[in-house]
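#struct-pred

JT: dropping the chains for the assembly here, can someone run the whole complex?
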Amino acid sequence: MLEVHALAKRFGGVVAVDDVSLEVGRGELLALIGPNGAGKTTLVGQISGAIACDQGEIRFEGHDITRAPAHERVRRGLARSYQITSIFKRFTVLENLALAVQARSGSSFSFWRPVAGEKALFDEAASIASEIGLHPKRESAAAMLAHGEQRALEVGLALATRPRMLLLDEPMAGMGPEESQHMIALIERVRAGIGVLLVEHDMDAVFRLADRIAVLVNGRVIAAGKPGEIRSDPQVRKAYLGDELAA
Amino acid sequence: MKAAVFFAATALLFPLVMHVLDQPFYIGFGARVLIYAMAAASLNLVLGYGGMVSFGHAAFFGAGAYIVGILSVEGVRSAWIAWPAAVVVAALAALVIGAMSLRTRGVYFIMITLAFAQMMYYVFVSLKAYGGDDGLSMPGRSTLSPGLDLADDLTWYYVVLALLAAVLYFLHRLIHARFGRVIGAIRENETRAEAIGYPVYRYKLLCFVISGAIAGLAGALVANQSGYVSPSLLHWIQSGTLMIMVILGGVGRFWGGPIGAVALLVLEETLSGSELLGDYALHWQLPVGLILLAIVLYAPQGIAGLAARWRRA
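RK: done, full complex below.
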């Protein structure tokens, strides 16, 4: 479904992403792990279209999207969430989600009809709010939400675009254990039938959710395979996992 | 809604009051305020709602004015031709300037819009065929239809008011329609707007063009107001004046533009007259500056924001 081939990105002299190739199939969840600064977020940025590629190719459902603008990739069904929460803070939860629904339902070059009267838009937004557990908070401004709730909305915005492939950049960042469990459950619910690329530091989440794991170190994929293989890979243990999983 | 009724009633009654008080001069002054209210409202669309700090809005205002001025000396005085022409030319200017400027952000956007406007200013300064530096006197106001004599100040006032009302109604619909929602989202978080599927650049450009077109209409009216156009209409000081109006009235507040235009022009009118300040009236800009400073420091949402806070309290 998503094929990344020999992708590269340099920032001045720093090679952030170095000859990365990976694949995510329909219904598959690929977790991307690696130490801070390994290039994970840069890679997500390249796949989502926010960052231009120096080299390589990205194909989504057979189409070459290497040079396609970000908004076009979203229309094709490739949506992302952000490591650093990026929501519309002055809008309510419902308005946030309705905005994402609006982007894929009809033209928004509409200048006359009040959007507040579009029931279908807000009904769908409300059902996504329930899905992410924010239905009770749907009328609150996004800025007023607790951290964990903002993270849920962050993922909700990506879900509201009705993606066929999700790029989740550290959805559990800064979450407490209980909130993380909610997020894991949410990802379990929505992943059916779609592809997911999950960047995450929470190893508990990664080993519970992932079908396959790729390990990125210094911009290169040093290992990829089933969770069991990655767990026992000596190179991975040395470079990244350390003793954390030895016990 | 209450605000709309209040402003409409005030604007409708103003000339009658001036008539009763035998102060016909102020009817002309009132029309000028309404025209600037339209120009400031157009700037507020890009500045307040779209988050694009355009420091070159005088370019569209002035272009609209010059089109009407040039057409009138060439013998085309029908408002039905001259005013739409002003709107179209201003919109085209906004399309060209916006297409290039909107590739930049922040301070660069401010500087590049300013630079384009100053370029247009110098074009008209050097346009000797149409008065150059001295400006251009029009043979008279545009003609609208038999029975409506725009040269009559009272008729003129109400025609301007009708156009302002139409523009404000359109802006109100636009802001609350899908397009307005997207523009607001882009101001809030441009990156995320793109990441949920909006071609951000296209939305910003269209917003810029609509704003430029409305500024062009205001320009067409201001040319008629004074019967004279000059390059000063395109000068950056004019852009700054419009910006001060928006800040004074309330950035991103629906009534911000109109309130700011009323506030600034009324302040200017009272403070620059010798009745109030005597010889010090020469320095009327100083108190205006101090008031602006107070607004920025203590009421960043402008007078409209203050009024809203007041109502809630």
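JT: nice. The radius of gyration of chain A is 18 Å. Chain A touches chain B at residues 48, 50, 69-72, 74-75, 79-80, 82, 86-91, 95, 99-100, 102-104, 106-116, 118, 157-158, 160-161 (CB under 8 Å).
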